[in-house]
Design a protein that fits this description.
Layout: H1 7-39, H2 47-58, E1 66-67, E2 70-71, H3 81-84, H4 89-98, H5 117-131
Antiparallel strand pairs: 1-2
Helix pairs in contact: 2-5, 4-5
This protein binds heme C.
Length: 144
């Protein structure tokens, strides 16, 4: 190996290194764009799931809850509530129907939303759908 570090050697390292990382960045970008559509399980978006998302938005559920980490920290994470409730949409519907729970003083309770059966089914299907998105196992535990 040569004893002197020449200008042209420095230049080659600079350009070579830059080029290498530009290509690496592009390759990772293409890889992400290719794999992302498989993560969100979009084949499972039925009209019910779409209705549920609308119910979710119109009632501002995100104003109290997080969904896969996004939202407010007043109430539990709901991205995995379907799993937490034993893989049951019925349990989710029963919970929403049964609010508010005024039993324990000082405990936060969810209000009653007076959703129709169709809306309840939709929002439960929407929460089932979110629990099946591939999130690299996030949230890390079943409590959310
Ligand atoms: C005003 C705040 C608020 C809003 C808005 C709200 N929630 Fe809640 N929610 C809560 C609180 C507080 C709890 C936990 C306490 C309880 O048992 O009521 C909860 C609990 C839940 C649970 C059970 C979670 C668990 O792990 O026990 C589900 C499911 C749920 N909410 C769904 C919804 C849906 C769907 C909407 C929108 C239609 C919604 N929430 C809107 C406050 C809210």
């Amino acid at each position: 190996m040569s004893e002197v570090f020449t200008k042209s050697m420095a230049r080659n390292i600079y350009y070579g290194g830059s080029l290498f990382f530009v290509f690496l960045f592009l390759a990772l970008t293409f890889d992400t764009m290719k794999t992302l559509p498989q993560q969100d399980n979009r084949a499972a978006i039925t009209p019910q799931v779409a209705l549920g998302k609308r119910v979710w938005e119109e009632n501002n559920c995100i104003g109290c809850h997080t969904l896969l980490g996004e939202g407010a920290y007043f109430a539990p994470e709901l991205g995995n509530v379907y799993k937490r409730f034993g893989n049951s949409t019925e349990a989710i519907k029963a919970f929403i129907r049964s609010r508010p729970a005024n039993g324990i003083p000082g405990r936060r309770s969810m209000p009653q939303f007076n959703l129709s059966e169709e809306e309840l089914e939709g929002v439960a299907q929407f929460l089932k759908y979110t629990s099946e998105i591939k999130t690299q196992n996030w949230p890390p535990n079943i409590q959310g």
